[in-house]
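Suppose you are handed a protein chain with no further information: no name, no annotation, nothing but its sequence. What can you learn? This example shows the usual starting point.
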Amino acid sequence: MIVVAAVIAREGRVLACQRSRESRFALKWEFPGGKVQAGETPKSALERELMEELGVRAEIRQEIYRTQHKYAEMHEAVELIFFEALVESGEIQNRVFEKIEWVEPKRLQELDFLEADKELIRKLAAEEICISWETQDSKSASD
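A reasonable first move is to predict its three-dimensional structure. Written in structure tokens, the prediction is:
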């Protein structure tokens, strides 16, 4: 199973999302995204997921991290691909999560993230992975 997730940065913080109480892995934190469906590329799947979960159109940029993880609760391993993403249009809306928060990378480790996300979180906190802090406004101004 391939899962994609977006690291969306704004003003020195990244968007973290808490899974709903009714979902598998209830109340765990994650980055927005979801499963790649048949016929989708990872980037097109992430574009779809961000529209469904947050109500925004996004530019999916470069892949920043990839990992595999096997959860005891699942039959197959998950291949998880993280992309940097920039919101192009729309205001971020919480459509499916318990809550969403903008969090400084160094504080991400304070949240109870899904196990598969933890190495990326460590790398973001240690600044081993660089992400663009470009905002929607600075993108528009530079066009």
